[in-house]
Write the structure tokens for this entry.
Amino acid sequence: VTSIIDESSKVSFKLSGNLQVIGIVEASSDGVLTGFMLDSEAKLNEGDGIITSGMGVYPAGIEIGKITKVRYDSDEQLLKVDIKPAVEFESLQKVSVIL
């Protein structure tokens, strides 16, 4: 079982309002979620919700969080995002495993 905030985890996501916009979210060692868009010209805004895309381990449609910052990284030529998780992972007492 791997949490989305595990630093070894990378999860594909879609914007909940535009399922054509796809990116990858990953966590840092301190549990902060960041991501990048597969299309560096994708149209997205702060406050946009993101959900799992269904590619990879996680099924489609699980809420991940909301975009808090959008920036273009000219060194990596990627559109990057900061994400506020939908839940406070530190306060979870029970979890379910989806098979």
Q: What stands out?
A: The chain is about 0% helix and 45% strand. The radius of gyration is 13 Å. The first strand starts at residue 10 and ends at 15.
